[in-house]
Write a structure and sequence with these properties.
295 residues, alpha/beta, 6-stranded mixed beta sheet, 4-stranded antiparallel beta sheet, 11 helices, binds adenosine-5'-triphosphate, nucleotide-binding, ATP binding, ATP-binding, ABC transporter ATP-binding protein
């Protein structure tokens, strides 16, 4: 079922077009990534989707509602790049202030979130004394208290260590299963986009690709096979395929998949000492589409 539909979304700041005719379609329960460099237009897009910024042009519908409908806002959870919590209040107080804003708050769900995101032993600490990872976990709990249908995460993992990032995603993935939660995230982390059901790549305000991770890989990446040899010259003569990179001890070739690799390896096995096989990555996709590497 289509939950969010965005048509020709555009935002101009004076003469600058920050978001240019963006179309999005998000199905309920999907994890959708908006991937792009600094300044690509991701945050501006999110700001319009959460009703914080008025589009210059275009239409946004969430389950049929527009951003200025109260029902639209009730369906949202938002984690901003910069926290909106009160530095001088404890974690508990910050969460409770938000919880009191909801008439039908599910206390069990609130407690479950506090457990799942492991906030119990920091619950009496002031927000300003928390580490970046702890803050982010509190921010996410705050955004989920109202059991949103759709959660917007604007660069949720920036500056977090790998363990915190994994923990956050473990809990979010469980919520996706149990609540059929839909998540839209903007990210610079390719690994995060790798798990997405669908990816929109943004560059200079435009969507330059929209596809599943698998299809993006098929279209824009090649697997690489690096062959190491004591006699690179002889190896090259036995390969009937173009060489992408050459060093004094190795040749690297672009191939379609592991079946190609097995065929090639069986033909030239007597000429190599060892090999490396590397599958195409999201990085390759980004470079192919924008000419730049993402961080
Ligand atoms: N209020 C504003 N006034 C003028 N220009 C703006 C404004 N907000 C954003 N921009 C410009 O719009 C473009 C898109 O910015 P945006 O913050 O959406 O990018 P982003 O992809 O989210 O980048 P980042 O990854 O750094 O957060 C940038 O060139 C930015 O300078």
């Amino acid at each position: 079922m289509e939950l969010l539909k965005v048509d020709n979304l555009t935002k101009k700041f004076k003469n600058k077009i920050a978001v240019n005719n963006v179309n999005l379609s998000v199905q309920k329960g999907q994890l959708v990534a908006l991937l792009g460099h600094n300044g690509a237009g991701k945050s501006t897009t999110i700001s319009m989707l959460i009703g914080l910024m008025k589009p210059t042009n275009g239409e946004i519908k969430l389950a049929g509602f527009s951003p200025n409908d109260a029902k639209y806002r009730q369906k949202l959870g938002v984690v901003f790049q910069n926290s909106v919590l009160d530095d001088d209040l404890t974690v508990e107080k910050n969460i409770d202030i938000r919880a009191h804003m909801y008439k039908n708050l599910d206390i069990h769900f609130k407690n479950k979130l506090i457990d799942d995101f492991e906030l119990k032993n920091i619950i009496h600490q002031k927000y300003k004394t928390l580490s970046g990872g702890q803050r982010r976990r509190v921010d996410i709990v705050r955004s989920l208290l109202n059991k949103p249908e759709i959660l917007f995460l604007d660069e949720p993992s920036t500056g977090l260590d790998i363990q915190t990032r994994n923990k956050i995603w473990e809990v979010l993935n469980n919520l996706r299963k149990s609540m059929n939660l839909t998540i839209i995230l903007t990210t610079h982390y390719l690994e995060e986009a790798e798990d997405a059901d669908f990816v929109y790549v943004m560059d200079k305000g435009n969507i330059v690709a929209n596809d599943t991770v698998n299809d993006l890989k098929i279209k824009y990446t090649k697997d690489k096979l690096t062959l190491y040899s004591n006699n690179v010259h002889a190896l090259k003569q036995h390969l009937d395929i173009d060489v992408a990179e050459e060093t004094f001890e190795s040749l690297t070739i672009n191939i379609n998949d592991h079946n190609d690799a097995i065929n090639i390896l069986s033909k030239i096995k007597d000429f190599i000492t060892t090999f490396e096989y590397k599958r195409g990555s999201m990085d390759d996709i980004f470079i192919a589409l924008t000419g730049k590497e993402i961080q």
